[in-house]
């Protein structure tokens, strides 16, 4: 892990961090009338519970043309650099026809498919290649979404394009691009030609490593056909894909919200169709399926003007999706990708128009991300499913106001605090190990995935917990102080008791995201919230958007397999401790 991004901050903060970190924290708690809480977290590095697989290394967004724009390329570069594995990227509208400007909120187009005067297909791969090239140049992988419907193929082409803006009704976006094809054979030929082109351009081995999927959320407005028409589209798509590249990985259905009974039913209907239904394209039984996808979303609300998150709702979606897949013996071992996994549903719905989204700029989003991903691992462990990835549906919005409260990773090229939690995840590899604790949840017991799934984090006590991993000579521990209520009052002394580590000297790096560290948003507010920051201010904001060390690196000694680290963690703070021999 390169540390150059933190050097300046280390120098600036080293004296303060070393001498006054704990006293200043205690003074803060006392001056705000906040009682200091104590937490004890026990980590047993000999008790392996599963792979620390990079399920977080997946991103997605609605607006594909932002991919190759200035801030889009910059953010993709930073995302690729934070991950030890290739990041998979999912974008909507890769087959949508041009109508006016290519890029807008919740809109994008590539003009891949048109027809001449005689109705013959005309293929133009220029823009979709530009998108995929941007990923490939950064060592990333397209999570290639086959959709939406080109205008020339739509069974209801007019009106085709939407002009949605924040505050408008969401259903206004569902227009001609969301309809079934008027000719399934022509659609299948488009799929065949696209995949064949990709194999020719990028090579068979490269395209084999991608995941290809059909459509998005067919169980709501994104699909204006029937369920059976979606199954027909899937069969023709999968058949064409396998003809173009027999080893291709094709999957679906990207249904949303399986925690709701109707959505759960739709997911089961799709799985029934691919396992025992009659294939519309081949008349055989069943359809190719190499992985399974669904979406999971939380639901924040306002309570007396304060944002209250609902992590439990998101976890219930995941729980039910995993449960459904696990109930099919022939499918249980297939990879599962949560195609969108977020605190709520609309990335382009800004804070100004949707006040309950006021969690996005600061540390509520970053601490939620740490706590929720840890529970996704636990849910997968519980059901014994093959959890491959969870797509964070949050990228960037080109040429928008600074810190407008979109669900994104960066604003005008400046990283938000949430991206620094992903930088922390990027340092966690190897085997996940057992963690237990004494604060959070009911009666002083730690919150676990069941408690948060059923109740979210609504009690008096915060969720103070950890995710830990060991990989040879390296151990990592992520610790968070989270509550669903967006209230920064609260600070905790946390004792980390580590055991069963190999004896010896270790270098300890302590990274932190909180109000004072790795937080461009707080710096921007201190600047007076400028909408036209100077070049100097932009450089400062870019620097503050990087992951910071809380204190200088130091050496610690493990004796008899044990090490104790004490830290003070404010509400919504996230720490990553990295131990290396």
UniProtKB/TrEMBL annotation:
Q: Does the entry feature the keyword Hydrolase, yes or no?
A: yes
User: Is-annotated flag, keyword Flavoprotein?
Assistant: no
Q: Which family does it belong to?
A: Belongs to the glycosyl hydrolase 39 family.
Provenance organism: Echinicola jeungdonensis
- Which regions span the lipid bilayer? none
Span of domain Glycosyl hydrolases family 39 N-terminal catalytic: 110-544
Which protein, by its recorded name, is this? Beta-xylosidase
Concerning SUPFAM superfamilies, the annotation shows:
(Trans)glycosidases, Glycosyl hydrolase domain
Give the Pfam families listed for this entry: Glyco_hydro_39
Which InterPro entries has this protein been placed in?
GH (IPR017853), GH39_cat (IPR049166), Glyco_hydro_39 (IPR000514), Glycosyl_Hydrolase_39 (IPR051923)
Instruction: Supply the alphabetized keyword list.
Output: Glycosidase, Hydrolase
């Amino acid at each position: 892990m390169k540390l150059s991004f933190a050097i300046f901050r280390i120098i600036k903060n080293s004296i303060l961090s070393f001498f006054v970190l704990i006293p200043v924290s205690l003074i803060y708690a006392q001056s705000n009338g906040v009682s200091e809480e104590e937490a004890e977290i026990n980590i047993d590095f000999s008790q392996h519970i599963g792979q620390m697989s990079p399920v977080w290394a997946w991103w997605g967004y609605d607006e594909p043309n932002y991919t190759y724009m200035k801030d889009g390329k910059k953010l993709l570069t930073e995302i690729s650099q934070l991950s030890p594995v290739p990041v998979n990227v999912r974008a909507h509208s890769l087959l949508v026809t041009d109508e006016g400007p290519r890029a807008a909120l919740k809109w994008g187009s590539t003009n891949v498919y048109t027809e001449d005067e005689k109705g013959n297909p005309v293929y133009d791969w220029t823009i979709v290649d530009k998108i995929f090239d941007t990923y490939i140049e950064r060592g990333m992988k397209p999570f290639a979404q086959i959709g939406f419907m080109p205008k020339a193929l739509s069974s209801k082409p007019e009106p085709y394009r939407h002009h949605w803006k924040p505050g408008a009704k969401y259903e206004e976006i569902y227009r001609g691009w969301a309809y079934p094809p008027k000719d399934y054979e022509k659609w299948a030929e488009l799929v065949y030609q696209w995949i064949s082109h990709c194999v020719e351009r990028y090579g068979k081995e490269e395209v084999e490593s991608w995941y290809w999927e059909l459509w998005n959320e067919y169980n709501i407005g994104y699909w204006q056909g029937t369920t059976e028409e979606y199954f027909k589209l899937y069969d023709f798509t999968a058949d064409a894909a396998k003809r173009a590249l027999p080893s291709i990985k094709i999957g679906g259905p990207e249904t949303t919200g399986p925690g709701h009974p109707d959505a759960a039913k739709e997911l089961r209907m799709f799985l029934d169709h691919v396992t025992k239904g009659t294939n519309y394209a081949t008349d055989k039984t069943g359809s190719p399926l190499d992985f399974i996808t669904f979406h999971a979303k939380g639901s924040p609300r306002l309570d007396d003007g304060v944002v209250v998150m609902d992590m439990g709702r998101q976890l219930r979606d995941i729980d039910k999706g995993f449960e459904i897949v696990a109930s099919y013996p022939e499918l249980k071992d297939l990879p599962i990708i949560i195609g969108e996994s977020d605190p709520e549903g609309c990335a382009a719905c800004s804070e100004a128009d949707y006040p309950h989204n006021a969690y996005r700029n600061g540390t509520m989003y970053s601490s939620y991300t740490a706590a929720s991903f840890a529970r996704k691992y636990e849910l997968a462990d519980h059901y014994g499913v093959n959890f491959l990835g969870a797509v964070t549906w949050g990228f960037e919005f080109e040429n928008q106001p600074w810190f407008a409260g979109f669900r994104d990773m960066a604003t005008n090229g400046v990283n938000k605090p949430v991206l620094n939690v992903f930088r922390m995840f990027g340092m966690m590899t190897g085997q996940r190990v057992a963690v237990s604790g004494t604060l959070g949840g009911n009666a002083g017991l730690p919150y676990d995935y069941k408690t948060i799934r059923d109740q979210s984090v609504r009690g008096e006590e915060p969720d103070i917990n950890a995710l830990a991993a060991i990989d040879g000579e390296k151990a990592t521990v992520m610790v968070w102080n989270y509550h669903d209520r967006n209230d920064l009052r609260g600070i905790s002394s946390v004792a980390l008791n580590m055991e069963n580590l190999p004896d010896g000297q270790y270098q300890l790096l302590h990274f932190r995201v909180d109000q004072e560290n790795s937080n461009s948003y707080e710096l921007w507010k201190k600047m007076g919230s400028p909408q036209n920051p100077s070049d100097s201010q932009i450089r400062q904001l870019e620097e503050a958007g990087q992951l910071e060390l809380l204190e200088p690196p130091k050496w610690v000694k493990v004796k008899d397999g044990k090490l104790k680290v004490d830290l003070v963690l404010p509400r919504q703070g996230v720490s990553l401790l990295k131990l290396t021999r």
